[in-house]
Amino acid sequence: MRIVSKVRTALTRYKADKSGQFAVMFSLFAIPLMMAVGIVVDLNVAQKNKTQLAAALDATALAAVTKQNVTEAERINYAETYFAGAFEGAADYDFKVVSAKGDTVEVAATGFSPVTFARAMGRKGLKIREKSTAVLTRTKVVCILALNPNGMRTFSVTNRSTFESPTCAVQVNSNHSRALQVDKTSSAIAADFCVVGGVEGTVSPYANTECSKLDDPYKSVRAPASTPCISLGIKKKDLAAMTTELTMETGTSAEVVDGVTLYPGTYCGDINISAANVKFAPGIYIFDDARVRFRAGSSVVANEVTFVVKGARSTINVEKDSKFVLTAPRTGPFAGLAIFQDSEDEFPGNKRVRSRIKGGATMEITGTIYLPGQEIEVFGSSEYGNITPATAYIGYEVHIKNNSTLSVRVDHTAAGLPPVLPRADEGARIAQ
User: Residue ranges of the domains in the chain?
Assistant: First the structure.
């Protein structure tokens, strides 16, 4: 029995000794292990905060860059306010707008993610630094551009009229609170509506009223110099007896009859075209202080042609029951421009002249109508541009009225023309 007792005592002492050694060993390794686990937890928290910070900066930059109709100082203030509301821990970070000019906004923030276990090592937090840059994208083609910078209703669709441009955008540069108008009897649909000012009525989709003013894409293009006037000063009865290829001579002006072919040059005075099968040979036609009217019953074809209007009274008017087909040049200094007015031309004061397309007219223009000093009007049951593959309208103002329909497309490849300009504010993206 004594032997058994001694054995039990020896085993008890051995176990006690081993337990003590384990306790010592645990105390030696437990604290570093807990610290390591704690640091991993702190790093995970920091990574989460870093991800949230980056997302908040991206959202701030995107929101600020699309805020175009403000000053740089206002955009900076907007970004600071947006960030404060977009990130729960914004107060713990030093936020900075690095740049807020033009089409780019860059923002950055620096701060510390709070720590628990790493604090025992003397660290107040884990430093986080992130930045984001957003750029404005301009990829949508503009097929209607109203240049008037401060007028009311500079683009309008009224009196049972319809406007459709599902593949291109409308840009209205006016800062007036009613820069764009669509009345209750009319409709307007486009890929995008971008307005510096405000909207009166309903468009689809909803208009972006925070857009920046879009620069005139052709303001640096100059009209060619006028040459001696080619006259149409031959009476109708005399024209009828002449050949279809008519060489004009200097004089004063008036009518064109059936089957006449006109040639490039400068034309002065009023020009009335009421004939069928009138052709314009390829080239540049300058109408110098000339009001050109395509009368009822006229039929005109002009391929590879640019009409240049000069002077305060020069206009182009297409009347009821006429047909007018015009295709811009594919190459050369006026490539893509079907009707052109020099932006430095002398325009009237407050009263702008108008180029008009009246009821019943079928006008097929392939290319850009650029009349920066005029109002372009479509009215009275017109079917304006319904079947042309690529057309753009740039005017001081653009108005569609009185039961008219204007449909616009911008497939320049199908038209065989250079890309249609300009481009609109489509939105923003984060720069990589």
Answer: 2-136, 140-430
